[in-house]
Please model this.
Amino acid sequence: MFFSSRRLLKSGYNFGKLQGGNYSGPVEKAELPDKVIIPLKQGFSAETQCLVKKGDHVRAGQIIGRDDHTWSSPVHSSINGVVEYFESFMEGHEPHYGVVIRRDHKDERGYVPIPTAGSADKSAEEISEILYLAGVTALGSTGIPSLHHTSDLKLEEVKGLVINGLSGEPFSLPQERLVGGRVKDFITGIKILAKLFQLESNIHLAFAKSAAIAGEVKASALKGLSVHTFENKYPFDMDIMVSELVRGPKVPDGGTPSESGLVVLTIQDVLHVYEAVVIGKPLIERTIAVGGPGTEQSRLVKVAVGSPVEWLLLGNLKKGAEERILVGGAMRGVPLESARHPVERTFSALTLLEENREREFLYFLRPGFSVLSYSREYISSFLRSFTRRAETNIQGEGRACIYCSYCEDACPRKLVPHLYSRYIRHDMAEEAIKYGLESCIDCGLCTFVCPSKIPLFEDILEGKKVLEERGRWSHVSGFKKLEKVDPEASTEATP
Amino acid sequence: MTGFIKKTLEATYRWLEKSPLKPLKPLLNAVDGFFFRSSDVTTGAPHIRDGNNLKRMFIFVVFAALPSAAAGIYYFGWRGLLLIAISYTVGLTVEITFAVMRKEEISEGAFVTCILYPLILPPDLPLWMVALGIFIGVLFGKEVFGGTGYNVFNPALVSRVFLYICFPAAMTANWVTAMTGWGGFMNYSGDALTGATPLALYKMKGELTPIWDLFWGNVGGSLGETSALLVTAGGLFLVITRVADWRIPLSFLGSALIFSLIFHEANPALFAPAGFQLLSGGMLFGAFFMATDPVTSPFTKGGRWFFGAACGFVTILIRGYSGYAEGVMFAILFMNIFSSLIDRIVLGYRYRGGRT
Model:
C-alpha cells in the first residue's frame, strides 16, 4: 500500500525528553581496555576465517579475520597486543568465535594504516578495495556494496544513497552530533561514496529538524545531494522509513530498501568511509551512545572495537538497580546476555533500562508529571518541558482489546495491528494478509501504545513466522513477489 | 498506610489459598490491582511501555461523568445518589459473578457502564426497576457476549432500552421539576412533573424551552443529561485526553445540526429548530459518552465519521417522525449493529488492492 508523503510525515511518535536521554556532553574517548575480544562475525555478515594463532603479536588495524568467499568484510585487531586465546559465545543457537587480544603497553593509539589509502582522489575500484580492507563495508544494515561480496546489493545495482541522521528511537545515537566541526570530512565522505556508486544524483540526507548542523551541510551545496529535515519521530530513523521519507514511498511492501537499490547509511558510517579512504584508518573505533534510565550519566563514548561492554559501563551504572542492557535503542534494542560481550563495530548505542518491578501505589490515579504516554491522560503530555521516564514495567493489566484503535493511530504504516493479533491468535493469519500485514516494518509502536497491554508485536511476528512456514510470505522478497508466481506456469513445468 | 494495605492483601491471599472461597480470587486480584500496579516487566521488544492503561482510561470516563451526575443531584435531589449506588451494587455483582465463573480477571468496563446508566434514567424511577435494568444490561448486554471488549451493544443503553420497552409508563412519566437555590443537595427528591421533558413538550404542544434553561439544565429530563454545559465539559475532557475519539461527537452533533436545520426548514411542525435539538434530551450525553464507547463503535477512522453522522441523522428522524419524543438511544443502538459492517467496508476499501 502506498501513502502520500504528507501522511507519512504525520505518522510516528515523538518520545520527547526522556530521562537518561540527554547526550549534550562532548564525545569522550574511552580508555583502552587491557584486553579486547574481537568477534570473527560482527553484525549481519558471515564468520570470517581467523588469520592469527595463539601467541601471535598483532598491531592495531591489522587484519585478523578475512574470508573473500563469504558474505563478509575483514575484521581487525583494535589494539596492539598478543593473541591470548579464542573465546566462543552464542548468538541464538550458533556458536561464534572471538579472538581475545591482551594489550601490551606499547604505541597505544597508533594503528596500521591501509597502504593504498591517503587521499580522496581515488578511482571507484581503489575506493572499493580500501573500504573492504578497512572493514567499513560491514556498516549499514546490509553492508556497503563493493567489488567484494559485502552486501546483498551489487555495486552496479545501486540506484541511490540515503544518509540517515535521524534518531527518533529513545536513547539511540544522536547522529547529527557527530558532524559538528567535521562538515568538510562528512561531505568528502559522501563524495567518495558517490564516486564508488557512480551516483550523479539521488543522494539524500535526512536530518532532525532540531539539528543545527543541517544548514551548514546544506550550504556546502554538493551536487546531487538533497538535504531533508524531519521531526525527530520514531520510527522515522528506521532504514525503510527514512528512505520512504526522502524519496517518497517506493519501497515494495515487505521489502527492504536494498531491494529498490538503495543503500542506507548513518552519518557515523559516512565518517568512517572518510577516515578509511583519506586517512587510511581501519574500522577499529566506534562512537557509541551509552544512556537510558539505568545510567548515572548519559554519554557519547568513542571506544575501541572489542572492548567489553562492562568496561564501557564502569562507574556509570545506577546503584542498586536491576539492569537490562540493550544494543540499540529502547524500542528495538537487542538484550545482551552478558556484560562481558565485546562492543562490535556495528554497534551505535547501548541502552540501559531498569527493571521497574516496583508496585506503585494507586498508579492509575497519579497526575503523571513524568509518565511517558501516547495518550493525553497525563500532565506530561501537555507540557513538553517535563522529562519523561521510560519504564520497562507493563504499567497495567492485560485485558481484552477494546478497539480504542491507538495502535492504528500510532502505526507508521496505518495498519490495523489489533485485527492481525486477533486473526493470528485464531490461526487465521492468511486473513491478516488481506488487510496489509505484509507492510508491517516491525517497529513495535503498536505494543508500546496498547492500553490493554496486548503483545501485538509478538503476535504479528508469530503470524509472519507461521506464514513463512506455509510459504505465504517471505521477509526477504516480500509478499508480492511470492504472489506473482503464476500457478499455471508452474504446472506446465511439471511433467 | 500502603504497608498496611499490602500486608492485609498478602494475608488475605494466604487465607484465600486454603479457604473454600478460592474461586473468588479474581475479586482479590482486582482489589490488589486497584491499589498496586503489577510487577510485570516487558520480555522483548519494545522494551518500554506506555503509561496508559484501561484502568486509567475507564476511570477518566467516570471522572468525566461526575459533573453531569453532580448536576443531576443538584437539580433532582440526592435520590440520584441512590440510583448510582444501586447501579454499582447490582452491576458489579453481575460482573464479579461472571469473572469468577469464567475464571478471568474482573474488567474495569463495568465501572463505566454503572456510572453512565443511572445518568440516563428518569430521576424518580422506582428503585427496583433501576436494579432490574442494570442486571439485564450487564448480563445480556455484555457478559453473555464474553465481557468487556466483546459486546455488540452499549450495555448502559441495553439496560435503558429494556426498561423503556417493559415499563414505558414509568420510563416516560417519572420526571421531576428541576430545583433551584440550594437544590437537590438539601432534598431527597423534587416535585413530580408528568410528561414534560423539553422534547415531549415540543412534541405534544409545540412548545420550545428557552435555550439558556437547556444550557444550565434546569429542565425536566434524565438524571445526568439535562445540563448541556456540564455534559459538554465532561465530553471535552474525554476528547482532550484522547479517551474518546473526537470524530464521533463531532460528526454526531454536526450531522444532527445539519439535518435538523434542513428538516426544520422543510417541516417545522414535526422537526424542532436546530439549536433546541442539539441541547435538549440525550443528544450531547449520547454523542460524548454513549456513541464514543470504543467497543461498540467502529474502529476505523472513516467508519467513525460515518457512524457518528448516521447516529445524528437517525436521531433527528426518530425525534421527528416516530411516536417517541427522544431518539438518541435508539439511534446509537441501531448504529451499533452496523459497527462491524462499517469497519469491514472501510477496510475492504482501504485494502482494495485485492490480495487474498
User: Anything to note?
Assistant: Chain B touches chain A through 55 residues (CB under 8 Å). Chain B has one domain: 54-344. The two ends of chain B are 58 Å apart (CA to CA). The beta strands of chain B are 175-176, 192-193.
